[in-house]
Amino acid sequence: MSQWSQVQQLEIKFLEQVDQFYDDNFPMEIRHLLAQWIESQDWEAAANNEAMAMILLQNLIIQVDDQLDRVSQEKNLLLIHNLKRVRKLLQGKYHGNPMHIAVIISNCLREERRILAAASMPVQGPLEKSLQNSVVSERQRNVEHKVSAIKNSAQMTDQDVKYLEDLQEEFDFRYKTIQSLEQNDKNSALIKQEMLALQAMLNTLDYKRKEVLGKIGRVIHEIDVLMSNMLTEELLDWKRRQQIACIGGPLHGGLDQLQNCFTLLAESLFQVRRQLEKLDELLTRLTYDGDPIPVQRPQLLEKVNFLLYNLFRNSFVVERQPCMPTHPQRPMVLKTLIQFTVKLRLLIKLPELNYQIRVKATIDNNRRFVLCGTHVKAMNMDESANGSLSVEFRHLQPKEMKTSAGSKGNEGPHMVTEELHSISFETQVCLYGLTINLETSSLPVVMISNVSQLPNAWASIIWYNLSTNDPQNLSFFNNPPAATLSQLLEVLSWQFSSYVGRGLNSEQLNMLAEKLMGQQVSYNDYQLSWAKFCKEHLPGKSFTFWVWLEAILDLIKKHILPLWIDGYVMGFVSKEKERILLKDKTPGTFLLRFSESNLGGITFTWVDQLENGDVTFHSVEPYNKGRLAALPFADILRDYKVIMADNVPENPLKYLYPDIPKDKAFGKHYSCQPNEVSKPSDGGGKGYVPSVFIPVSKILNDSTEPHSPSDLLPMSPSVYAVLREHLSPTAIETAVSCKLSPS
Question: N or C: which end of the chain has fewer CB within 10 A?
Fold first, then answer.
């Protein structure tokens, strides 16, 4: 089943998450129509290879053309229209930057895998539960309801101001009419009656002025309360969700809803500001003793301006944190002289601001680093699919400044991966007579000068964003706090779900907890130090826990990803636990686990039964990425042979734990079937005898452990069959036990 087919079968809450990251940059129609083709391409590699990205882009356009021809014959007008639009987008937007579309598609596929992994995990961790709190959802609905009510109140006040204006114009006309009469006419009874009517009208005017000012004051108060409490909490919650999403957690939505709230409040405040300006205009035409306008209007206007300043300042946010396109799953780790992208948004979406706000990007204030590339750009509504007022910097590069002695500071292998920096952004908004300076900053980033520093830098990013919601604590690692073990384990599971498409279950997490604590613990409230996680070596080892785990992630990603996604790699299980699991199983039952003593190694252990009925276990020497680069792991499991005493070589691996036939589990991942290899021809001819590598181990009578499994013999199955016809098992054993001399 294709990945897209699995996505379509998700529950609605997960489908809503999928919907969030498909937009006009990569329309969902194309993902749906070209699902199998898209999944069969290596978009992640293309994201770092411009030539490959260009080829894939051209092939993508060809695929769209083929679909366009098909739907044209079916006369599907809507789909024809959409496909033509997509084709124009692909040719226009990405022709000059094909790697960008490769990054987008790679990210979409990765997020799909993460969501599929999250959907398959029955239990939510404490962090994810906190992010999906029902109280938070209720507050979101309350904010939207109150913003809508405030907007309606401001519009109703507009009608009151218009009524007041009409009433004053009538009063002004009637008053001037009386003033124009001769003195004798003013003494008439009719005029005196009119004067009494004018006095009553003036009283009504005074009442309506007070009423309008009161309504304006209440609208301002409601906006003030909403901004000070619920809206601020909503924004802080969104920023916290963004932090969690950056370290592999659930996708953070809600920014469009926040934009709608901020925009409606800004529109309401500007509407109130216009109402106060209209009252000032009415004041210049008519005033009187006890007039409330000159007393109340200045205070109300000052409060409106203050709220607008605060609203604009809070609305300037980093929508997408700094990230190198070459490492999309490791945001906030930046390598010197390598481009990174970052996107900002102004949550107040007003047409008057389109292309009017220029944003400048800088880094730190210590002058150690500078940003190269285009660091000043204008915000606009054209580049975002949802029309938000945003700007994306795509060509920024951090560069370390030379010291006065002419050498660079700490650049090189010793650059500190616990040193935090910040990318800052500033701009100015000039609107309706207001000038507002805006500033915001990215979450702390870690600078590296070599990709070998990336694992430890990423550990720093994880620890920071797990431990604090402070967006700018650059001295955090001067005294890093401990983290709750239960939350850390949840984040570690996210590393697997986001990076390799499948998270960790409770048994796997328990093993990691024991690895960290050195014993079985109840880890709900246990506090783990930063040093224990990333600084101190594991007992008896020359590496830290994090280095060990990161090597496993790299191994999965590059060599056993399909097996991991299928759930056939138990992986995190101790030697003691694996023997407990296997001891009562059918001989030939095996499981796959990651090596605890070798970085980036995977091994398999199978159970066997001796003639006297005793159970014995055999664990093969771990395979590392060097060996797996030469032979796929699924093929190793298929072809693995063991020679025991005088027996012929045979494959001891029969059933994947608990009882899955090996070929049923791994058959679809075999690169080819052994019987597909042709037998050597008698005539020899000009070709060579076809061959494959066969992993063989030898187990002696007095040993329960095999020798090295790395003796990969360049022998095809057909050649081996011929040898068996002419040689005894003892002769074959002797042959495979000898070292091959160079020819």
Answer: C
